[in-house]
Amino acid sequence: MPLDLTTLNLSDRQVLERMSTYLYEHYKCGRKLSGLLFLRDINLSRMTGSMIKYLDMFQRLCGEETFKNIILLTTKWDKSPEFAHNRESELVNKFWAVMIKLGSSHPKRLGKVVDPSSGIVNPVSDIIAPILKFQPTFLQIQRELGGGSDLIDTAAGQYIDRDLSIAIPKYKESSDSAMAQAEKTSQPQVKEALAGQAAIHDEELKRAKEDKEALREDFKKVMKPEAERHSELFGYGMLSFLDDYVTDKYSLVRFYTVGVASMDLFEVCQYLWKKQGKSQGLIKSAKDAMSSI
Predict the structure, then answer these.
(1) How far is it, in rounded angstroms, from Cα 150 to Cα 59?
(2) What pLDDT score does 224 carry?
(3) Residue 6 Cα distances to 2, 36, 39, 259, 260, angstroms
């Protein structure tokens, strides 16, 4: 159940509201997280600005106390280029260095076929089984919201608010610049193109202002409409299905993933349910549930 924010056409504020609503509901029920997975496609050439932003947001959602419950993963090693090892080193020594220092796992490699010689691990025995031994915990944002904070007062909310404060004047400057150039040119096609650019920046400016204002709303007021949109974000159906059948004895396991996973999550669910003596009927239902997500 990968979390691919780029396909949802949601602003950072909207994504934060959806995630926070879901996490807060589980906080109220006393459901802690045993582990979190952070995935990175090793074939991607570099960490772009948006990827770095997602990593920063992930860290603020979790909080440093939860880093020890994070398993870092690099995927698609079966298709990896020759310089994949250099990319892995950059992740370890730069982008993931703080999380690793504070207890996150050293990155594990995933591919379609387990291959110990190249370091490609078994997702069940090398990832899921260790998670079941972790001490369950709450994320930082769950503790913040549970303590009565609104989104704007959380570490993640403050991060988005600062980002919007920087973006708003930039959008306005870009819009004004495009309009000024449009007024100076005598070429109709250029004028039309510049006006179109200004309109795009105006829309970005409008949305950023709306997001900045919405961040300051009472979180309790935000929760109800957001709860009705659970299905819009990263496999809520599968998570709810897991809620029903993964017992406290083995801890509730949650998977929040960033990037594209090459894991067979059906295999993971099958492993969990077999550990608890669940029937093949439930496993088949799980497979059907995942196919509809």
Answers:
(1) 18
(2) 60
(3) 12, 20, 15, 10, 12
Which residue is listed with tokens 């040119």? 185
| Band of pLDDT at residue 145, cut at 50, 70 and 90 | very high
> What residues does 75 pair with on adjacent strands?
41
**In this structure, what is the dihedral angle of CA atoms 273, 274, 279, 281, given to the nearest 10 degrees?**
70
Mean pLDDT score, 85-114: 91
pLDDT of residue 6: 47
Q: What are the helix (H) ranges across the chain?
A: 12-28, 49-62, 84-90, 97-101, 129-131, 140-146, 155-184, 188-214, 219-227, 236-245, 265-275, 280-291
253, 242 contact by CB (below 8 A): yes
d(CA 276, CA 248): 11
DSSP state for residue 177 in the 8-state scheme: H
> What is d(CA 224, CA 221) in angstroms, rounded to the nearest whole number?
7
Lowest-confidence pick of 140-144, 232-236, 268-272: 232-236
**Distant-in-sequence, close-in-space partners of 139: CB < 8 Å, separation ≥ 6:** 23, 33, 61, 62, 63, 66
**C-beta of residue 227 within 8 angstroms of C-beta of residue 19:** no
18 or 239, which is more confident? 18
Please tell me the distance from the alpha carbon of residue 291 to that of residue 95, in angstroms, as a whole number.
34
